[in-house]
Amino acid sequence: MGVTGQMWFDRSDGTMIRSASADGTVIYLSDRSIRNRMRRVDLNSYILAETGVLIEESTSIGYMKVRAEVRTTGEVITVEALNVPGQSFEGTVTDNLIEGIFEIEHPRYSGEDAPPFPSDYSEIEELQPFLDPGWMIESDDPVLVAKAREITDGSRDSWDAARATAGTPP
Q1: Which of 67, 69, 71, 72 is CA-nearest to residue 101?
Q2: CA of 66: how far to CAs of 8, 69, 74, 92, 101, in Å?
Q3: Cα angle for residues 9, 14, 16 (degrees, 5° grid)
Q4: Which of 5, 1, 2 is nearest to 27 (CA)?
Q5: 8 Å CB contact between 58 and 40
Q6: Which of 32, 35, 34, 30 has the alpha carbon at shortest distance from 17?
Q7: Which of 8, 31, 57, 126 gets the most CB atoms within 10 Å of its CB?
Q8: Quick one: which of 151, 128, 150, 131 has its CA closest to 139?
Q9: What is the pLDDT of residues 130-169, one digit of tens each?
Q10: Nearest-5° Cα angle at 57, 53 to 59
Q11: Are 131 and 121 in contact (CB under 8 A)?
Q12: What whole-number distance in Å separates Cα of residue 115 and Cα of residue 113?
């Protein structure tokens, strides 16, 4: 997100004892009496930029052209790095000040030639970490498996199944 800072940790137990951010804010580990007097702050003003434009149904956007001026911190940005699949950039980057026009286009997948459903991905080794049970992946939970089968029942292919799990009608 372009935010820079430093953190100090207690080597004995890994507890963070101090944090300093680029804007000069320093946070120290403190005792309970101090922590109870602390107040919360809204970080949105630090990590989000107000545009004055409300975008209705942002998930349905397939193309957008935006003139932007953005200052980043903590990273080196180049014009080349801003041109990636689905996004082109024309403009300048000087001392991490980005000024120019972004064009963002993500073509919608129609479901054409979708893989069959259900599919057997057990032979694809690189997918196993995402399919096998583990921390935060409860792929063997009988209740979840039953619900997934219920939601995807009648799906003609993987595209139909994906749309069903997202709650989108075929």
Answers
A1: 67
A2: 39, 10, 24, 14, 6
A3: 40
A4: 5
A5: no
A6: 30
A7: 8
A8: 131
A9: 888 877 778 888 998 999 999 999 999 999 999 999 887 7
A10: 110
A11: yes
A12: 6
Name every residue whose Cβ is closer than 8 Å to that of residue 47 and which is 6 or more positions away in sequence. 1, 3
CA distance 44 to 50: 9
Q: In terms of residues, how long is the chain?
A: 170
d(CA 146, CA 138): 12
Question: What share of the chain in percent tops pLDDT 70?
Answer: 84
Structure token pair of residue 10? 């207690």
- pTM of the complete model: 0.45
Which residue has tokens 């149904």? 57
Q: Tally Cβ neighbours within 10 Å of residue 155.
A: 19
Place of tokens 């602390």: 38
